[in-house]
Amino acid sequence: MWRLAAVFAATGALAVSGCSSSTENSAPSTSPAAAPNASKVDDIANTVPEDIKSSGKLIVGVNIPYKPNEFKDESGKIVGFDVDLMNAIAGTLGLTPEYREADFAKIIPSIQGDSFNVGMSSFTDTKEREQTVDFVTYFSAGTQWAQKVGAGINPTDACGKKVAVQATTYQDTDELPAKSKACTDAGKPAIEIVKFDSQDAATNAVVLGQTEAMSADSPVTSNAIKETKGKLEAAGEIFDAAPYGWPVKKGSPLAQSLQKALEHLIESGDYKTIATNWGVENGMIDKPVINGAVS
């Protein structure tokens, strides 16, 4: 839920993704099933802002990898749940999606600066972010921890533990600092928050024993547990559910276009098909809204 990156550059990030020869934590190289081909719906396509409509393209800012939502397959193609859904959205709008990679913290500023039309990187819709961009909600996720099998980590009492996160996510900027402060306020040792540039590296850190646990969005943690083939398990339940959203420029009518397109895909069943293909159907929503932040 919570790729809540603040719009500042992360520092102190470590990288261990090249430290292991194992590829067991890799997500599937392609979609596990063919994604539905969405056709243009004229009434919805006609709501697209004229400059975007005339270009024929939807410029999408994306940060990878964040499996299973967005990552590259073995051929280098960007794939994932978010990608299949955005492809269907663009098809409904009569547009061709053009994915442009960027640092996660730079996507929202690039939307404000008109470099991207929309962001697609598991952004959490928050009230703070709604001050600078509008969001169209499309999914609901929570936070979940993972640990090595049998490690006995308790996310509600992890004082003194080393916990891996992807830098600038909600887990890095909000969740773990708050939990660590609660530890020190109680006279206990702080949580050692170990930051990584990518979620793959954070996951590898737990597998390699460099940290004792990791905290990430619930679909990402679920995928990591699955792909590490018995090396990791959930530590506690999912908590703090909140909506993912697509950020667009503040006040842009593109928000209404995206909302209408997703409503259409929900009604047609394509939304459910795409979510089920990627094993994230538990996070499906019934109705997209503009600026639906819960906190």
TrEMBL record:
Annotated region (Disordered), positions in chain: 20-41
Low complexity composition-biased segments: 20-39
Signal peptide positions on this chain: 1-15
Domain Solute-binding protein family 3/N-terminal positions: 57-282
Pfam families linked to this entry: SBP_bac_3
UniProt keyword annotations, A-Z: Signal
Alphabetized InterPro entries for the sequence: Solute-binding_3/MltF_N
UniProt cross-references to PROSITE patterns, sorted A to Z: PROKAR_LIPOPROTEIN
SMART domains to which the protein is assigned, alphabetical: PBPb (SM00062)
Protein name: ABC transporter substrate-binding protein
